[in-house]
Sequence to fold (439 residues):
Amino acid sequence: MGGSAGSLRRLSDSEGELISQESEEPRPPQDRRGAHWKNVVGFWILGLCNNFSYVVMLSAAHDILSHQKESGNQSHVGPGPHNKSSRFDCNPVSTAAVLLADILPTLVIKLLAPFGLHLLPYSPRVLCSGFCAAGSFILIAFSRSVPVSLCGVVLASISSGLGEVTFLALTAFYPRAVISWWSSGTGGAGLLGALSYLGLTQAGLSPQHTLLSMLGIPVLLLASYFFLLTSPEPQDPGGEEEAERAARQPLISGEDPEAPERKPDSSSGLSLHEKWTVFKGLQYYILPLILVYFAEYFINQGLFELLFFRNTSLNHAQQYRWYQMLYQAGVFASRSSLRCFHIRFTWTLALLQCFNLVFLLLHVWLNFLPSIYLVFLIILYEGLLGGAAYVNTFHNVALETSDEHREFAMTTTCISDTLGISLSGLTALPLHDLLCHLP
Fold:
């Protein structure tokens, strides 16, 4: 019941009050170890559940845009009107439209979050995230038109965006180890979300029933937050704080890495000058992450649909689902690799991802790759780069930011991936129209 009691207190807590409820008497080592494992597993599950609906919407993007449900035949998705004069077998609308519906609300949330979201307690935010995720599955499952389906995608975007800002800010009150577990969970969401949608539809289940079968995920998110997480511990029971403090290279010049650190009270206690100073120090990590996500989502939602091979046993929709699943498999593997590989120079990952974009764009234009299996390998590699950029960026920010600045820094860095994805969606739409009008 320790996890339940600790989390239920957050129903009325704001960020600044989160630590003040902590008992002054330290827990025995055995209890602390148990609480540590509850927290890291809790953050892994939260990462999994938070990103699940977002991933499923991208995996279903081709179906959402291509299906036309008829009033007596709602069990299966049939082909919609494609551009048959084009060698790409294009949908009338690019799958980047689903990407934009799945990311623009998240962008708005993340842009506004550093300025006022801290005034809303954590628990209402988590409840809102869970209800929006459930609503997205229900709305799309029973939708009969593309516009209504896109409204469901918007709900999924609100859920994942609000959840990511909330839970990454929450990590500031826990040992830094929870960041790698959260990141691994988000990678697991990509793999499980894409694989479950692919597997269930391949097995013959309709997209409608596939989406309805996923309603247990928002319930698991709420249960993990309210009944699994414990109240934050003031120290890392794994004993990693000393090693991390020794390796810290502060983002803000003049900050002493050896100075004793204190837990954050609230980002609302920072002045505008402090926030601006922290933001400037974050640019070394924010800019590469924007570039990584621009390149990979330009590939995912701008080129996946155009990477169509006619000489395989997979139809167009199946090829698209396999691309999404392999990408998410790469993301899961690399987001779970922080214990094995720590990359400080994330600019390298950004440059490699941009090379992937140029290479696949040339193939779409010139059609020189002989086999879909070569594309499978490139997409898996693309996911490895994207996942590594995400987990190492947030780990570096947590490591190199002082405790009183960490909550604001984590919330602000969240903007990076969303901004890169939004820019890629806006760029992919006109590219889709251009290429699909080619003979």
About this structure: Residues 1-24, 68-83, 235-248 have pLDDT under 50 and may be disordered. Residues 59 and 194 are 6 Å apart (CA to CA). The chain has one domain: 2-12+34-69+82-235+263-436. The radius of gyration is 22 Å.
